[in-house]
Amino acid sequence: MNAGEEKTVSVLKGIGVSPGIAIGKVYVLDRSDAKIFRYKLTKNSLVTGEIKRFRKALKESERQLAEIKKKLGDYEEIESLYIIDVHIMILRDRMLADNTIRNIEDKCINAEWALRMTIDKYREIFNKVEDDYLRERISDVEYVGQRILSNLVGKKHETVSEIGEDVVIVAKDLSPADTVQMKVEKILGFATDSGGKTSHTAIVARSIEIPAVVGLKEITGEVMTDDEIIIDGTAGLVIVNPDPEIIKRYEEKKSHYMAMEKDLLKGAHLPSITKDNHSVGIGANIEFTEEIPSAVAHGANGIGLYRTEFIYVNKERLPTEEEHFLNYKSAIKGNGIKWATIRTFDLGGDKFISDPRLAEEMNPAMGLRAIRYCLREVELFKVQLRAILRASAYGNTGILFPMISGIKEIRDAKRVVNEVKEELLSEGIPIGEDLKIGIMIEVPSAVMIADELAKEVDFFSIGTNDLIQYTLAIDRVNERVTYLYEPLHPAVLKLIKRVVDAGHKAGIKVAMCGEMAGDPVCTMILLGLELDGLSMNPLAIPRVKKIISNSTLKESKKLLEKVMTFSTAVEIEEFVRNYMTEHFPEYFPVDGQ
Ligand code: PEP
Ligand code: MG
Questions:
Q1: Nearest residue CA, atom 3 of ligand 1?
Q2: What single DSSP character describes residue 483?
Q3: Fewer CB atoms inside 10 Å of the end CB: C or N, the chain?
Q4: Cβ pair 560, 535 in contact under 8 A
Q5: If DSSP states are collapsed to H, E and C, what string results for 119-180?
Q6: CB-based contacts of 51: which residues, under 8 Å, 6+ apart?
Q7: How far is the CA of 43 from the centre of ligand 2 (A)?
Q8: Could you say which of 87, 200, 324, 489 is catalytic?
Q9: Ligand nearest to the CA of 517
Q10: Are 194 and 215 in contact (CB under 8 A)?
């Protein structure tokens, strides 16, 4: 685009995954590698200049790393800083500098190519190392090499932590780890080409309360850094280069949205009881303990799902027992928190981790994840269980096992819990007397044997994100099949009913902690299904609570009965949406605000 040329407004429709409106300037997070050329230096003076250039890039890289370390220093709980020290040590390694300078001098080549040859040499050395873990550390050398290269070619190395504040990130894709950093960096919002509603990148966006739209397919091709952009995470819209008129309208929408949220917060502390006295427990889903104050402010009185695997995100090593323990204790003892359900590691799937023990898999959603991984790596599992059991002495605690697909898995998991219990008691360490054990129901096989599983545990929690993924065979991170993600599919409703019935028959409580639990369109249906508890992202709580306190169990059951006579998800969705809009117009405004 030429200077002075007018930029045209464009509106893109994607999947709104985190509500709210962000207005600001674009920052395109481009992860594509810089191209490296090789060229011969013809004069001696050029060699000296090239060495100087290389030294300058080294220095600049070290300065950048020191700056990142300083910035993250205030957020020790988010990032273990030692990895940055490791990178600084690599930068200072004599072999790195000496070898590269020798390549420039002896071969009369440019600094980029000389550096590349040095990194190749490191790779050769690392490849010979037998220890898997150490061999994998070549990735740190490569990361450092990439940073120096970026500085040599004048290209910014792209990580969220280095982007300035108050921008809207546009990227092809983002990992949950990128999203976590946005909280620290005060990013306004983000928009990506790929992604789905229940991907963990989306879940984190909701938990840190920044507007986000994903699945836009080609937004990276439509915008440039510094373009003006509006993200409407509620309506799933992105407006690029909006004119002043549009900006004004969206500023109004934004204040309207914020006023409505504030209004909803007013009633957030009221109990969640229907007009005919049916009570439903309301919990918050959290990824980080820092979210607890916001969860309580939004009306949660317990933690229904603590996704503990997020303790691991952005870390290069597994947390210690003490780190686990401190996290769980602060969840259980959180101000205003009456109970906490701590889910054991659900690593794998779309939750990327850098543990070399987890090989890359063709189909990670159905691979060695969650309880399967924990039962394989029992020692690692025990570290987490010891910490949960120790923390359980501080308040009402539930352990929740993810991805249970059969009886043997829960029995194996319980056996490990008992071993850990005995170890702790023999060491004289107290544990909670009323520790409850529950399982996520998120694999269709678990639904089918829910009656048997109910005899093994104290509670169920239905994970609709995965249950829908596995039942309807749709990848939850693939934007091309998002249209099939239908919580109100008759098959899903029947599965939920089956689980609730089996649980209640066995006398145990059945909650739901998938995203469906926080979707206000589904609230009356879930009431009708008689779930005992709903756990959701904190932002969703006030609206869901209002709907509960303005409904009756009787009419909810009637609504459920009616929709069960339909045979398609589309019919059910349309009927329920119309019903809810008619009964609660203030919570379902027509223009999606
Ligand atoms: C679920 O699957 O519904 C769930 C709550 O767990 P997660 O989203 O972490 O897989
Ligand atoms: Mg799940």
A1: 463
A2: G
A3: N
A4: no
A5: HHHHHHHHHCCCCHHHHHCHHHHHHHHHHHHHHHHCCCCCCHHHCCCCEEEEECCCCHHHHH
A6: 101, 104, 105, 111
A7: 62
A8: 200
A9: 1
A10: yes
221 CA distance to ligand 2 centroid (A)? Answer: 33
Residue to substitute in 313, 439, 447, 466 for testing ligand 1 pocket (most ligand atoms within 8 angstroms of CB): 466
**Alpha-carbon distance 458 to 508, whole Å?**
6
Q: What is the pLDDT of residue 403?
A: 96
d(CA 593, CA 584): 14
Among positive and negative, which fits the CA dihedral 79, 85, 88, 89? negative
Residue 170, pLDDT > 70, answer yes
157 is catalytic: no
Express each pLDDT in 103-127 by its tens digit.
999 989 999 989 989 998 998 888 8
Angle formed by the axes of helices 111-127 and 44-72, to 10°? 60
Residues, the chain: 593
Residue 283: C-alpha distances to residues 306, 508, 541 (Å): 10, 17, 8
**Contact (CB, 8 A) for 65 and 91:** yes
Q: What DSSP designation does 43 have?
A: S
Give pLDDT, residue 428.
97
Question: Which residue has the least CA distance to atom 1 on ligand 1?
Answer: 463
Ligand nearest to C-alpha 536:
1
Number of the ligand 1 atom closest to the C-alpha atom of 346: 9
Tell me the per-residue pLDDT of 430-447, one tens digit each, with 9 for 90 and over. Answer: 999 999 999 999 999 999
Which residues have their alpha-adjacent CB atom under 5 A from ion ligand 2?
A: 442, 463, 466
Which residues have any ligand 1 atom within 6 Å of their CB?
305, 307, 346, 442, 463-466, 513-514
Q: In the annotation, is 278 catalytic? A: no
For 133, other C-beta atoms within 10 Å of its C-beta total: 11
Please give the structure tokens belonging to residue 534.
């709903």
**pLDDT confidence of residue 12:** 92
Helices (H), 377-463: 378-391, 407-426, 444-448, 450-454
Question: Cα–Cα distance between 106 and 127 in angstroms, integer?
Answer: 26
State residue 316's pLDDT score: 61
Output the six-digit token pair for 305.
Answer: 């799902």
Average pLDDT for the chain: 88
Q: Which residue has the tokens 């063709």?
A: 362
- Tokens 């309301």, located at residue: 282
Which ligand is in closest contact with the Cα of 203?
1
The answer to whether the CB of 88 falls within 8 A of the CB of 65 is yes
Handedness of CA 434, 440, 441, 443 (dihedral sign): negative
pLDDT value at 45 more than 80: no
